[in-house]
Amino acid sequence: MADCEWRELAKLAVARGIHLQPGQRVCIQSPVEYSSFVHLLAEEAYQQGAQEVCVRWEEQTLSRMRSRWAPEDRLATGSPWSAGELTEIAREGGCLITVRAPYQYPEGDIPPARAALAQKTERMITQEALTLRMSGHCTWTIVLLPTVGWARKVYPQCTDEQAMERLTQTLFQCSRVEPGHTLENWREHRAHLEQYANYLTGRSFRALRYWNQQGTDLTVGLADGHRWCGGGVYKADGLPFIPNIPTEELGTAPRRDSANGTVVTTMPFLFEETLIEGMRLVFRDGVVVEYHADRGEDALRRLLETDAGGQSRRLGEVALVPISSPIAQTHTLFYNTLLDENASCHLALGNGYPFCLQGGEALSPEDMDRAGLNTGSLLHVDFMIGSPDLSVDGQNADGSWSPVFRNGTWAFSL
Amino acid sequence: MADCEWRELAKLAVARGIHLQPGQRVCIQSPVEYSSFVHLLAEEAYQQGAQEVCVRWEEQTLSRMRSRWAPEDRLATGSPWSAGELTEIAREGGCLITVRAPYQYPEGDIPPARAALAQKTERMITQEALTLRMSGHCTWTIVLLPTVGWARKVYPQCTDEQAMERLTQTLFQCSRVEPGHTLENWREHRAHLEQYANYLTGRSFRALRYWNQQGTDLTVGLADGHRWCGGGVYKADGLPFIPNIPTEELGTAPRRDSANGTVVTTMPFLFEETLIEGMRLVFRDGVVVEYHADRGEDALRRLLETDAGGQSRRLGEVALVPISSPIAQTHTLFYNTLLDENASCHLALGNGYPFCLQGGEALSPEDMDRAGLNTGSLLHVDFMIGSPDLSVDGQNADGSWSPVFRNGTWAFSL
């Protein structure tokens, strides 16, 4: 039974996630411990016509030894070879699958500055592939696998075995995995989300205003010619694909110079293995000018200081998720952004997505700049601000405001 | 207990095998399934001053999917990135460790021609690193790990568990692993073998003649200025290291144009996952002009036809191992050349080793050519010809012959 569902998840990732076309190459990034799921992905990919499946294996124990013991200049250099194939496949417009196993390892004892350096180097090494992903040059998807560490964090009252079983079933359910029906489930789900995306795009709001009792009161302009995406996004050639499974969000690109006001997070989120909780950011003309976190403030500072050009202090995404989302309805804090962001309205610091601009795949860097997109960051970090009392208004072309969200959900029906 | 011996084996591989110098980088090639032994190697390497430890993971299931399903032109291209780090570390004179787990997988169902193509491509991709290894530009060692498949092949009468235990203990014993004493054991062993190597080098034989009742009657010239190696070899800068653990052999380089006569193997050996048994080769002026195998003749043909330039039809190594070798004394056929070759006199087809020439590390390709060394092959494949009745004579400068081996062991004492 479970085997059958894992295979179904692999099929979903290949057929809808990366939307593999015959003759394409696929690069999978995965921890070595999850090779059996990687085999399922590779089998599905070859069966669906992949030319070749390459794997960039990640091995945490060795990475940690390196972070602990390698000299600093070596840590700062990294190994460009390790991302060679990933970059090559991204360049040729192939497909990338990332397998993530959150909380697989207990927290390490690496000095935070060295851990941060290692992660920054990894981002530099993979930046070209990231840019190509973000611009829709290739298709990509992220698959989350349950781990005991994660399951126990989510369900601390359960035994290891119970917690794993519960998290596994929840992941299947949130991912709409149902043997024999999964692809059809996703066709319907996507059509539903696209209806909202098309409606919001048609409204062409100039800005959004968010407010609730938690302390959020923020106005943020939307990029010129923005497009809302829901149930997946589009490759440069128009091919639809689904970067995150599950997905419940409707998202678009803000103007990088337009956020003003305060946001307060309603869920913790991870940055570089550190949980940031109770974050409060004050924006002026798009830039974070004040910041605070009840927990993880050091990590927050590193996040904001990542980009020399200041891009990590600006917004790259605004996304709306009603509290009726099935993930929100589990009333569970997953301590993982890919799930939690699909249970809550959220924003992101760092890069904006070109595919959130109309015809964005074909736009030049200058065009994107003119549209107001935040680009050139090493990061894209989501944080959740949704709440059952959240209100959102959209500003019309004439300057008037229309309700978009009331009481944490859509203020209109389609 | 076993843990302790595994750690001791890892320490031996790092301290004597690659003879790590502080500040060097290490590249480990290993099947992903053996990550826990790789962790031991990496820990030892960092503790002994390595700058960085990189791993080139091998994953058999994916490699086989690729061999089965990827289009032929892709199989022939391979992935140059995968060997980038290996080649880089070889170029900078670093250290390479190969972890091998023989018979880990049951025989696959890959069409032989496609399997051979994949292996040839792998050899092309790693050829620069191989050439750098062979020339002593970097240090390298191979560590064998026991697998159930291998253990059951060696001890078919045992249960899986018994066979694994027996093979594991035999490997530790043949590798002279003895917690707290391993490095000292190897100092003594090396000194013993070096005594023979120095003696044989001093004799400067022009040729060797082998004969026994199995049908071997072969004369082979030795390369001009050859040097015998035993208990390890030398890096270009003179640093001693041990490519194979265990090692019992005394080896040197033949002239590539000089073998005449017939050799008959006394043990089976593997080429590209095929066992070749009962092989008979006839040489004329260095080249194999007739060949036969009771089993695996197709694989033998592919072996001989590997190099367009014909190098794989010529000899690259002659090695002497007395029947008193501890590995021979186990009276066990290991179905693995790295062990079996240390129980028996053997020869190799393909590349000769520059470090088997005096000052060989500094010689130009033209010098090696002039000395008669076989170079430019994609292969180096050993095959065993030792027997309890083997005789070997060495030809002196004046053309006379002196006994070297009688009844499978040294004809002289030191």
Per-chain topology:
The structure is a homodimer of 414-residue chains.
Chain A lengths: L1 H16 L7 E7 L3 H13 L4 E7 L1 H10 L2 H6 L6 H8 L3 E6 L11 H14 L1 H8 L4 E6 L3 H7 L5 H15 L7 H22 L3 E5 L5 E5 L7 E2 L2 E2 L5 E2 L8 E3 L7 E5 L4 E3 L2 E11 L2 E9 L1 H8 L10 E6 L5 H4 L7 H4 L5 E5 L14 H7 L8 E5 L6 E5 L5 E6 L2 E2 L4
Parallel strand pairs in A: 1-2, 1-3, 3-4
Antiparallel strand pairs in A: 5-6, 5-18, 6-11, 7-10, 8-9, 10-15, 11-13, 12-13, 13-14, 15-16, 16-17, 18-19, 19-20
Helix pairs in contact in A: 1-2, 5-7, 8-9
Jot down its keywords.
globular, 414 residues, alpha+beta, 2 domains, Thermophilic metalloprotease-like, five-stranded antiparallel sheet, 14 helices, homodimer
What does this structure look like?
Chains A, B: Its cofactor is Zn(2+); Mg(2+); Co(2+). Chains A, B: One of its GO terms (molecular function) is metallopeptidase activity. Chains A, B: Keywords: Aminopeptidase, Hydrolase, Metal-binding, Metalloprotease, Protease. Two copies of one chain form a homodimer. Chain A contains 14 helices and 20 strands. In chain A, helix 1 packs across helix 2 and helix 5 packs parallel to helix 7. In chain A, the strands form four sheets. In chain A, strands 5, 6, 11, 12, 13, 14, 18, 19 and 20 form a nine-stranded antiparallel beta sheet that branches. In chain A, strands 7-10-15-16-17 form a five-stranded antiparallel beta sheet, with helices on one face. The mean pLDDT of chain A is 94. The first copy, chain A, has helices at 2-17, 35-47, 60-69, 72-77, 84-91, 112-125, 127-134, 148-154, 160-174, 182-203, 297-304, 326-329, 337-340, 365-371; strands at residues 25-31, 52-58, 95-100, 139-144, 207-211, 217-221, 229-230, 233-234, 240-241, 250-252, 260-264, 269-271, 274-284, 287-295, 315-320, 346-350, 380-384, 391-395, 401-406, 409-410. The radius of gyration of chain A is 20 Å and the shape is globular. In chain A, 34% of the residues lie in helices and 25% in strands. With 414 residues, chain A is α+β, with helices and mostly antiparallel strands. The interface between A and B is medium-sized, with 29 and 29 residues.
